[in-house]
Design brief:
The protein is an all-alpha fold. It has a single domain, classed as Tetracycline Repressor, domain 2. The chain is globular, with a radius of gyration of 20 Å. It starts with a helix and ends with a helix. InterPro entries: Homeodomain-like_sf (IPR009057), HTH-type_Tx_Regulator (IPR050624), HTH_TetR (IPR001647), TetR/AcrR_C (IPR049149).
Amino acid sequence: MARTNKDFNNKRNELLEKIWNIFITNGYEDTTLSYIIQTLNMSKGAFYHYFSSKEECADAAIEMYVTHWVKEIIEQDTKELKSDERLKKVILTGVHIANSNSEQNKKINSSSNAIFHQKLMVNIVKQCTPLYAEIISQGVNEGIFNVRYPVEAAEMILTLSNFYFDIDLFKWSKESMLSKATAFEELLTRVLGAENNTFSFISRLFKEEEN
């Protein structure tokens, strides 16, 4: 039975890799279930053995990819650091991973992938929250942060950073992003009860992008 489950999961993950590429390339809204099945070169019955719907396979593909990304962030996480430096490193690692595939990002940000993009951002918030909450709790214990609800604070920070800084979603001008980043630094400082300039590296990122 264990062998069968392993084979099932391996095959399912193999299909999810292909399904991710189908949605990225073709667009979630423009991709029908019959197109997915045809592209995977499998029968309807075989597909339904692994997934119940287009939405389920999309959600599973997104979850798998975000899990890969979060694993990479965790592998580069340095628990020996103080919480403020640790959070800085985690944020920068996440930004680097997010920006590492510009061609894929363009496709994710296309109008035909609006629902897919939204699902992706929600999943990122959910999967990153435990790590952020752990670091915030560490900061409370160290006296660096002053937060009563670490999990909720982590959720709010991740939601704001994911959605608010999405230029394609809000159609922000590039010129306005520096002031938004500076405002986000101030908000982050107050939410976490941190010292001034703890998060000044965020606006520096946007300054580097301008130059």
